[in-house]
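Q: Give me the 3D complex with coenzyme A.
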Amino acid sequence: MRILFLSHAFNSLTQRLLVELQEQGHEVSVEFDINDEVALEAVELYRPALIVAPFLKRAIAEKIWANHVCLIVHPGIVGDQGPSALDWAILNRQLRWGVSVLQANARMDAGDIWACCEFNMRDTTKASLYRNEVTEAAVKALLLAVARFQSGDFTPVPLDHANPDVRGKPRPLMQQSDRAIDWSRDDTQTVMRKMRCADGFPGIRDTLFERDLFLYDARPENVLRGAPGEVVARCGGAICRATVDGAIWIGHLRDKRHQHPFKLPAAMLLADEVEALPEIAPHGESGYRDIWYEEAGEVGYVHFAFYNGAMSTQQCERLRNAYIEARRRNTRIIVLMGGPDYWSNGMHLNLIEAAHSAADESWRNINAIDDLALEIINTPSHLTIAALQGSAGAGGVFLARAADEVWAREAVILNPHYKDMGNLYGSEYWSYLLPRYADAERAARIMQTRLPMGTREAISLGLVNEAFGKNVADFVARVKRQAADMARVPVIASRLEYKHKRRHDDEAHKPLQQYRERELQRMRLNFYGFDPSYHVARYNFVYKVPKSRTPLTIARHRRTAERLQRAS
Ligand code: COA
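A: Here is the predicted complex, encoded as structure tokens.
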């Protein structure tokens, strides 16, 4: 079936739904919801059997919904209405929540119900819920709705708030006043809940050192204490603020009036204000920890839970040191765990944007990732596994491929391409790694396609070795079982021997340094050359400049039109 997605952006949920529908044999084209005229034009060009809105911020035009079935994916249980569905669900401590698929009509979120799917809530941020539970429920509900639509004999159920089974209700847009933190009264749990219902967007608006700021990335602190509301310490990029019964770490802040009005590490944005505060190193239960190591038997696990999967120069350097430490241990396997929401999204574009010289910082950042990749590739002592609990994008995908094996949670989405970031050439030794695991044709397809892919396709292309686990907890449990089993098998010694020999032969054939130099030569042009595409694309990404048109890579319906236009 031909399905048109009308979406505010090509976000993680939209990408996952596209992958799932395509795997079911449907053809999907995407149009960004820019205005009614453009949406109408897309419908006329594509003539879809069905329209789906995975992520919309405004109503669909009547001209469209009156003539086509339009299914809206709403991140709320049946009866829930409004733009802050998840924010309210977290703030109000709902134990169960869900996703409903509704038919668009004249009233926002009040259309007939095609399907719904519920899940248990988890203590986490809105963004993490959205990427995990909400996305899983949305996949199930949408696939069911599409099957029902195709069957032709399903009548969607009208919304009836008088029905006692309908638990949801209309709720307004959540205001900052609804989630404002009262530092003199709110306990740590309440502060965490308020922070989480606003993370990744819009953040908690608050005053710190007389500055009007938005707060993100909260983690509880178990040891430090202070007067409620007082900032008592810093740890890496985070600051620690006391509550009435404890303290929390705040990892990131945004200052709308700052020359860099986007999310930045808290201690960096407040550098002058927190300079005199005690700097603590993560220790036991205390501190803001973004890299940690655990060991079980002969397996070492290196975790790196970087906010939004972005890896700054300094984070890459610290991770490289942690990796080298892990390699010194008397273990046989090292598992690179990433974080629960992302494995890695490559260079830290916000920090690059905020740097004195974006080109210099890009150069430092890519070299720091390369240095890390190099250590992973050159690990004769251990079998290495990249375990993708969460998604990976751009350089993050190729960094994962530096490990001997890549295991991914089934639902993970990979964006193994750099070109969307202003035609970046990319590094991380991809020109060595990719042909090793995919043949030349598949390697070219991966680099050129610029499309997200699910794990099934990633396995068929050689980017991933295995995919399993319905959720993060299942995935991690199986990674640990599987890694422990692998370490016990005597064959690991011959695998390591083979690995060592292959690396040795590869190096003799063409040294890694040559791959790196060639990649970086192209990256240097991206950073310092005459073509500013990368700098423009990065600015647009970091400042979240709305797209003025849908890229042809995903707007199938516009490809033919564009070709005809060019020909005339
Ligand atoms: N640097 C800084 N921030 C990043 C980032 C990066 N490399 N990658 C993602 N983010 C941030 C986004 O700005 C967004 O921030 P928010 O919390 O303020 O909304 C958040 O992470 C989530 O990203 P989003 O784009 O909404 O996630 P997605 O799942 O829809 O898309 C990607 C995933 C990987 C396709 C997309 O984030 C992307 O293109 N990232 C850039 C990758 C890149 O080009 N890296 C540099 C080259 S190595």
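A quick observation: The mean pLDDT is 96.
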